[in-house]
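User: Hey, my collaborator sent me this sequence without any context and asked if I could get a structure. I don't really work with proteins. Can you help?
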Amino acid sequence: MKSIWTGSIGFGLVNIPVKLYSAVQSSDLDLDMLDKKDHANIKFKRVNAETGKEVEWGNIVKGYRLNDKYVVLDAKDFEMANAKKSKVIEVEDFVKEDEIDSTYYETPYYLEPEKSGVRAYALFREALAKSKKVGIATFVLRNKEHLAVLRAVGDVIVLNKIRFYQEIRETDDLKLPSKSEVKPKELTMALSLIEQLTTKFDISKYKDTYADDLMKVIKAKAKGTKITAPKLQVSHKASDLMAQLKESLGTKKKKKAS
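Assistant: No problem. I've predicted the 3D structure and written it out in structure-token form, which is a compact way to encode the shape of the chain:
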């Protein structure tokens, strides 16, 4: 793996030099964009709006339009804005992880210690694990400030970017049903169904199978095989919730018996 950021974790007066690595990889198929007429590959170019000529990456700079003129910024300018936040994952608070709504979570990353930070990294990791708390931190990545959660997962400290409060939309515009819509008997049945389907969470049993299914379609088309779209089977046509819940419970019992 290649690190995408180097800096340190600021934990009180303790400084822990670390490298940041992406913790995820895409499972999507790498599909190309083609011209419908002749299947030629579509390419995107960085073009100068004045001359119409293509511009090489090395000649591209970033700028902000101020008073009808561009102020051009370089790497040093971004760091000068806040040198500490550009280089330090500053832990500001510790909280219980279940206090953070899942709506706020974004991208996970792995943190690896530099050689000079091994002991401090291990200490911080074990302290997080023993306290059963997570650290709330801020840092700058790719010229943007992020809020993050630091937590111990086995031998690694995982950094999860989380959204700021102002980035989450309110639900006032949504038309949502009130609790009075729920009938007690239906709720009891729904709780029974949840109980029957309850198991210990194991992430490894959930697979992204869509990419594999799509590859089968691609290979079939390549061979000229006629493809028939599968029809969705409706398991029941009951119009009321109670009947649907009873049928769901019965289906689960049959699966267990077999």
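In plain terms: The two ends are 45 Å apart (CA to CA). You can pass these tokens on to your collaborator as they are.
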